[in-house]
Amino acid sequence: MLAALRSPSRLRVEVLAGLVVALALIPEAISFSIIAGVDPRVGLFASFTMAVSISFLGGRPAMISAATGAVALVIAPVMRDHGFDYLIATVMLGGLLQIAMGVLGVARLMRFIPRSVMVGFVNSLAILIFVAQLPHLIRVPWLVYPLVAAGIAIMVFLPKITKVVPAPLVAILAVTLVVVATSATVPTVGDEGELPDSLPALFWPTVPWTLDTLRIIAPYAVGVALVGLLESLMTAKLVDDVTDTHSDKTREAWGQGASNVITGFFGGMGGCAMIGQTMINVKASGARTRISTFLAGVFLLILVVGLGDLVGTIPMAALVAVMVMVSVGTLDWHSIHPSTLKRMPKSETLVMLSTVLVVVLTHNLAIGVVAGVLIAMVLFARRVAHFTSVAEVAHPDDGTKVYAVTGELFFASSNDLVYQFDYAGDPAHVVIDLTNSHIWDASTVATLDAITTKYARYGKTVEIIGLNPASAERHHHLTGNLNAEH
Fold this sequence. Notes:
Structural class: alpha/beta
Largest sheet: 5 strands, mixed
Mean pLDDT: 89
Number of helices: 20
Membrane topology: Multi-pass membrane protein
Radius of gyration: 29 Å
Domain STAS: 390-486
Pfam family, one: STAS
Order of helices and strands: HHHEHHHHHHHEHHHHHHHEEHEEHEH
Main location: membrane
Low-confidence stretches: none
Strand content: 5-15%
Transmembrane segments: 41-57, 86-110, 117-134, 140-158, 170-189, 209-230, 291-308, 314-331, 351-380
Helix content: 55-70%
Shape: elongated
């Protein structure tokens, strides 16, 4: 950030990027406020406080946090059934839970999210961004369509000429000037909802601080914490990939929580990382530092409070054009290319498509990611289970037979292990060689005990050899203490 402050060209990029993001935040914050059932000012002020606070507290520079649809969906029932004060209490408790999760290292679980889920996350995000623009393109004056096309054309061709000014900003200004100059009647930002005319003030929710209140808000607060954290960490990972840099996910986790608590103190509806606006900031505008995030919040407040009348005249067509280009730029086109799909294992493609399908159907990125991870885990366990084999490798004498077990032994693969031996036909002494395998869980030890028990019924003994140190320790501590019949 200090290097950016010393570089006029970099600083210009950060400042203009913050301005573009602020303009794009306004209609989004208003629409999310409507989803949550609150006044538009609640969403706008939340976007301001989230962006400014996360610019200091977050672990991923240049990422934008603000009021989001995912959090709005979670807290909407609280507003509907219990009122605004309970909603703010829910946001604050959700923020505290995120801080606790960050301190406990929950962010480290991100490494368990497979690449196919990440690709599905990105592709579903692109679809959701595009679908969110459709209401602004249906049953609107015909002039909207050429305006959107003009905005897209500017963003496609201007970067080929110059990158001094972000193309999205030029598109917004150009389309707005055309509409103002021609007095054309098209939907504007002002039509989305009333903009505030005062600064946010400190707020403390008036709720009884009792166990009954906790029982009401706790389930929704957990939802806010989990959905917000997952979406923020996934977005941070996406920005890492786009910028080829690494970010502190643990700091981002507790930073999101602290930002939500701060937002609650100013009567905001809470939020998390905004993927669309982040892509505008990082990919379309080229921002790389916390300056753009901070200025996005500051510009947002200036625009809606000080320049509300002017901002209200911006045609929605200009912002729709920006978001359509963000959608196109976000989609991983390589992942859906026929040649890629042909080479990719079917299980990987299934995980990616499942993630996309769940996200599109639920409009919830967090649910889609969880579903994708679960499907990936099941498919992985199923695939690994088939890698285990049992073969007779030696018959040193009439009274002894040696079996070799190859592969990873865990609950999915070891369950079939019990059926791989000839209990009645084998000689009196059976040796099971586990040199080329590994015991991972108690299920495998229980299976080995069951095999020993079955041989014992026929008066035969079993000797298990070749255990590596970790497997030997696990087997030693658990064998005989599990119910071998099950």
